[in-house]
Write a structure and sequence with these properties.
It is a single chain. The protein folds into 2 domains: 3-112 and 344-351, 3-Layer(aba) Sandwich (NADH Oxidase), CATH 3.40.109; 126-333, NADH Oxidase (3-Layer(aba) Sandwich). The protein has helices at 3-13, 52-71, 126-136, 150-169, 171-179, 185-191, 204-212, 216-224, 227-239, 254-273, 283-292, 301-318, and strands at residues 25-30, 33-38, 74-80, 89-97, 143-147, 181-182, 195-196, 244-251, 277-280, 324-333, 349-351. The protein is an alpha+beta fold. It is built from 12 helices and 11 strands. The strands form 3 sheets. It has a 5-stranded mixed sheet, with helices on one face. The chain has a 4-stranded antiparallel sheet with strand order 5-8-10-9. It has a two-stranded parallel sheet with strand order 6-7. The two termini are 14 Å apart.
Length: 352
């Protein structure tokens, strides 16, 4: 396979979701084999417990590689975590010439984006719902759940908005988040990484308050006045809008988080193809994974209780068994066009 074609595929494949657009990947290529490596210090270490957030992001990239390779006349065989001595080697991708299978999903790789706006509640067809279920059936051991009732959507919206409150009240999380925000288009275009403030879809008054909250002392004052709880409640109203939630449950294995990323990327591209919007909500379950494993030093008792209580609501709605984790939830609906998109860095690719 021509090196230029591999380079073109990888430069397109990295238009995949990652925590705060951290892009925690690099690649090495030897002949027709791509080695995909994790960069463990790229993502927010509090949320990215056991690198599970990064592994999910790698899965999204792998799904793009599969689709782009097939459309170029190559079959991509994926071997996850092939080296016991190098845990940063997430995947070995072997490319073999085959019949060209052009996927129209490739047309939506750059168009797929997080949309945090308020959504219209529209109806999807039975055929569309079945298409999503059939995609999920391609991934063994991964469960796809639809949450459609107004009551459960409101419960989930409150659960996921609790992360916003914790983020504003916990100094470590507060500093990590605000240090990674790109405040201007110029800064975003220069960095090509981090959370671009325009993608947060804040109204002018909200943006002014958010800029004030960058100062920790002001954030502390907001907590004392009960304003962090109020902000979470207001966000919950937005999170409750939309047609349905899609949630992905996995067994507690690193490889399953990669597979979950592959599944969600294919679902998200399909949703984008329909002209719909999606908003990933995963922070609270990732915090719970840390708390569940008794890594508590980053949290107050108040926040530990809030995380546990919130996750208990998820367990009741999803009927989660002991060996299952929530890898990702997507809020789906019609949000219109997002105000802004996040850029991507040119990936590091070494040809040997």
């Amino acid at each position: 396979m021509d090196n230029k074609l591999i380079k073109d595929i990888l430069e397109m494949a990295v238009y995949a979701p990652s925590g705060e657009n951290s892009q925690p990947w690099r690649f090495e290529v030897k002949e027709n084999i791509i080695y995909q490596y994790n960069i463990p210090d790229r993502d927010n270490y509090i949320y990215n417990y056991r690198q599970r957030g990064s592994y999910f992001a790698h899965g999204a990239v792998l799904q793009n590689i599969i689709l782009l390779s097939e459309s170029s006349g190559y079959e991509a065989s994926i071997d996850l975590f092939p080296s016991s001595s190098d845990t940063n080697l997430v995947a070995k991708i072997s490319l073999k010439e085959s019949e060209k299978k052009v996927s129209h999903l490739c047309d939506f790789i750059k168009k797929r984006a997080t949309n945090r706006k308020k959504y219209k509640d529209i109806t999807i067809t039975i055929a569309q719902k079945e298409e999503l279920k059939n995609i999920a059936n391609e991934f063994e051991g991964i469960s796809l759940l639809f949450v459609e009732s107004k009551e459960n959507k409101e419960k989930l919206s409150k659960v996921f908005s609790n992360n916003d409150r914790i983020m504003l009240e916990n100094k470590i999380l507060h500093d990590l988040i605000f240090d990674n925000i790109c405040w201007t288009e110029t800064q975003e275009k220069e960095n090509k990484t981090g959370l671009y403030v325009k993608t947060m879809e804040l109204e002018t008054p909200q943006l002014a308050i958010f800029k004030l909250l960058k100062t920790w002392r002001i954030a502390q004052l907001f907590k004392i006045l009960g304003m962090t709880k109020f902000i979470a409640k207001e966000n919950a109203k937005i999170y409750a809008t939309g047609t349905f939630y899609l949630s992905i449950l996995v067994d507690d294995k690193d490889s399953n988080y990669v597979k979950a990323g592959m599944l969600v990327q294919k679902l998200w591209l399909t949703i984008t193809k329909w002209g719909l919007s999606a908003h990933p909500l995963a922070a609270l379950p990732y915090l719970h994974d840390r708390v569940k494993n008794n890594d508590l030093k980053s949290f107050s008792f108040e926040h530990i209780n809030l995380i546990n209580d919130s996750y208990h609501i998820l367990e009741n709605i999803y009927k989660i068994s002991d060996n299952k984790n929530v890898a990702m939830t997507l809020r789906v609906g019609d949000g219109g066009e997002p105000t802004a998109l996040s850029s991507r860095m040119k990936p590091e690719i070494i040809f040997n």
